[in-house]
Design a protein that fits this description.
The protein is mainly alpha-helical. The chain has one domain. It contains three helices and no strands. α1 runs antiparallel to α2 and α1 packs antiparallel against α3.
């Protein structure tokens, strides 16, 4: 009986290890996606600053037609909307990775990938400890 039990917990430890590897992969990919979003955010933010300066100059000393200046205003609105979208994406990805304690926005809190990873590592240690005691 003990041999069968030992075999079961050895397989259980192997399955937990696979879950840990899967979690490491998911954390890595999520961080990579967040970095891509951050780069796009930074690029859009710099474009917006250049555009704001251009609009300011055109309003002081117009060298463009009014229709082109209106187009610049529309472009500014679009870039500001994109910035907000990127900020929301980064916040969402940070929440997915790090989780959150209970707040007004998340009354039950959010369990992040890092917390799940730590829990799996602890579980693996407990299973191996139990396995060695059998």
């Amino acid at each position: 009986m003990f041999n069968e039990q030992k075999k079961y917990f050895k397989q259980k430890a192997k399955a937990i290890q696979y879950s840990i590897w899967d979690m490491q992969f998911k954390i890595s990919k999520t961080r990579m996606i967040r970095e891509e979003v951050r780069v796009a955010y930074d690029l859009t933010k710099s474009k917006l600053e250049v555009l704001k300066n251009q609009i300011k100059i055109q309003k002081e000393k117009p060298t463009m037609e009014k229709g082109d200046i209106a187009r610049l205003d529309d472009e500014q609105v679009r870039l500001e909307r994109d910035l907000k979208r990127y900020e929301d994406q980064m916040k969402s990805l940070d929440l997915e990775i790090n989780g959150s304690r209970p707040t007004n926005e998340y009354p039950d809190g959010v369990i992040g990938l890092n917390h799940q990873f730590e829990s799996l590592v602890e579980l693996l240690a407990m299973v191996k400890d139990y396995y060695n005691k059998i």
